[in-house]
Specification:
Elements lengths: L14 H10 L9 H9 L3 H13 L18 E7 L6 H9 L4 E6 L6 E7 L3 H14 L4 E4 L13
Antiparallel strand pairs: 1-3, 1-4, 2-3
Length: 159
């Protein structure tokens, strides 16, 4: 699941939505029916958990849902990138950038460099190739900030 552009609609989470969001941040069980297992843990039925998760993804509340792979451990690479995108072109450029399979996630920031995204590629040389393709497609320079040291912070946001 790829991140949506910054214009996601406003959604009010109820208590069950919050339980689901908080539970999903702890990972999905590696079993044949993972949503059945999650639903049982939180006292809901699987169809409800799936429907609510889909609604939260569609509304942009969940901006990314899927496995996290360590591309570097598999011979690939990650790179934080930024662009200065003209305000009136932001949504169109976001759609272009989000269309690249190498884009792991993409966020708007209040800064001269107002679009930040992460590239993940199967091989380290794929980073520069993807950045060049994005620059050509968008007409914006792509600044690359490669990882110098890795930290695992276990980031979670309580819903």
């Amino acid at each position: 699941m790829r991140a949506r552009s910054a214009s996601a609609e406003r959604v009010t989470l109820d208590a069950v939505d919050r339980i689901i969001v908080n539970r999903l941040q702890d990972g999905i069980p590696l079993v044949p029916l993972p949503f059945d297992a999650v639903a049982k843990e939180i006292g809901r039925n699987p169809e409800d958990v799936i429907a609510r998760t889909a609604r939260l993804i569609e509304a942009g509340v969940l901006t990314r849902f899927g496995p996290f792979f360590d591309a570097a451990a598999m011979g690939g690479a990650f790179c934080l990138c930024a662009m200065a995108v003209p305000r009136d072109q932001f949504e169109a450029v976001a759609d272009l950038v989000n269309g690249f399979d190498e884009v792991a996630h993409n966020y708007e920031r209040e800064h001269a460099l107002n679009m930040w995204f992460v590239l993940a590629t199967e091989r380290p040389e794929g980073i520069a190739m993807a950045a060049d393709e994005i620059a050509r497609a968008t007409g914006c320079d792509v600044l690359m900030f490669p990882k110098l040291e890795e930290y695992f912070i276990g980031f979670k946001v309580a819903a």
